[in-house]
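Tutorial, part two.
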Amino acid sequence: MKEMEQVDKDKLIKKLVESMPEMKKNLGFSYDDLERATGISTKRLSAFEEGRQKPKWTEFLSVLFVLWVDENCRAFAEETGLFPPELKRAFSVNRNAHKPTI
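Running the prediction step on this input gives:
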């Protein structure tokens, strides 16, 4: 997939880690909420935020897609640059195409 070559995965993962405190505070997510939604353990999520472990790309995507299904969270993901245009193109995401459903 040529579009994925344009995505700086390390940069996006770093943004996620940097955004975690704000995400928890402003969006009301707890580690327990994220664990239930993503399957990533609270212990591992805590280790990301504290810089003890680096998220895998699949874990980044799990968190991103959890954010994407809620309008406020989606705005947060876009404002913080967690879902940049090059990643949207890689996934062929058109936010106006349809309303996400859970």
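The helical segments are 2-5, 9-27, 31-38, 42-49, 57-68, 71-79, 85-91. In part three we will examine how such features are distributed along the chain.
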